Amino acid sequence: MMNFALHSPESRQRLALALLWITPALWSVNYIVARKAPGVVEPHLLALGRWALAGLIIGVIARAELWRERRAVLAAWPQYLVLGSLGMLICGAWVYQGARTTSAMNIALIYSASPVLIALGAVVWLGERFSARQALGVAVALAGVMHVIVKGQWMALAQVQWVTGDAWIVACMLAWAAYALLLKQWRSSLSATARLAATCAGGVVVLLPFAVWELLQPATPAWTLQATVLTVTAALLPGMGAYWAYGYAQKVLGASRVASSLYLGPLYAALAAWGVLGEPLGVHHAVGAALILPGIFLVTRNP
Q: At 191, phi and psi to the nearest 5?
């Protein structure tokens, strides 16, 4: 998406290695935005602004290809509406909705189990092979997710104070797994950049009526400078910035090496939640991470 003046393989390698550490931090910014948004901007308005701005920038970059492939884009418009619903409506607005009642750390840890569901879905849906090691990883990671949701109180589940925010984030995790599997199943002649621009357009279409409804509600806060800052931040850092950084690093280093950097996401989210938001970190977070991250490793590592 960008063309850096990096001519030597060594300089490209150095940049890609640096981006391995930066990319999860960029994605973690979205958890901070989500927790700052309540009372400032409504969930669907924030998601609409984020993906409309990101889609506009990506569309300008990929404009030549999108025009050249316009017939293919129009022929596949139902797919882009589905992908936009999963990736921008559910994994966008619903994250912001869930963040009203759950913590940034819970969001990061629950979301981090999505590679496990993607691997499981690939077996059930796409017919890929699944080993006993991967099955163990699924069980361990999902146990970690449940440990976070029940706040470690397995022996006193009746006393657990359930929060609706965790349910919203579980729905987002499921939607992200479906999104990733559909991207793999639905072949496209477009490049990754052009396809993302088309998906953003689908997301804007499905988000628009919900955002208009929010805008018409009497309790909706007036648009402020803070709302603009949150929207632009969400579009540029966890949207444009994380996408480009991940794509560049993957191109230089390969998919398997870059995928391992995603394990840093919960760590960065924990530091951000504690340092920026002042959220306390509980023992159940540490135990959940100790189950989820090894589980993801068992499921996703190469044989």
A: -70, 165
User: Cα–Cα–Cα angle for 21, 26, 31, nearest 5°?
Assistant: 125
Q: Which of 34-48, 70-84, 229-243 has the lowest mean pLDDT?
A: 229-243
Task: At 113, list the tokens.
Answer: 């189990």
Residue 34 counted as domain residue: yes
Q: Which domain holds residue 95?
A: 9-185+192-300
- For residues 185 and 63, which has the higher predicted lDDT (pLDDT)? 63
Alpha-helical runs (H) found in the chain? 9-36, 43-61, 63-68, 70-75, 77-84, 95-98, 104-111, 114-124, 132-149, 164-185, 192-216, 225-234, 242-253, 255-259, 265-275, 283-300
Which of 235, 251, 207, 239 minimizes the C-alpha distance to 80?
207
| Domain total of the chain | 1
The answer, yes or no, to whether residue 203 has pLDDT greater than 80, is yes
30: number of CA atoms within 13 Å, CB side?
A: 33
Residue 8, Cβ neighbours under 10 Å: how many?
A: 8
Q: Using one digit for the tens of pLDDT, what is the confidence trace for 249-261? A: 766 766 545 655 6
Residue 2 in any domain: the answer is no
Residue 197 to residue 210: CA distance in whole angstroms: 21
The Cα–Cα gap between 200 and 80 comes to 8
What is the chain's Cα-based Rg?
19
In a domain, 4, yes or no: no
CA distances from 77 to 162, 200, 273 (A): 39, 12, 38
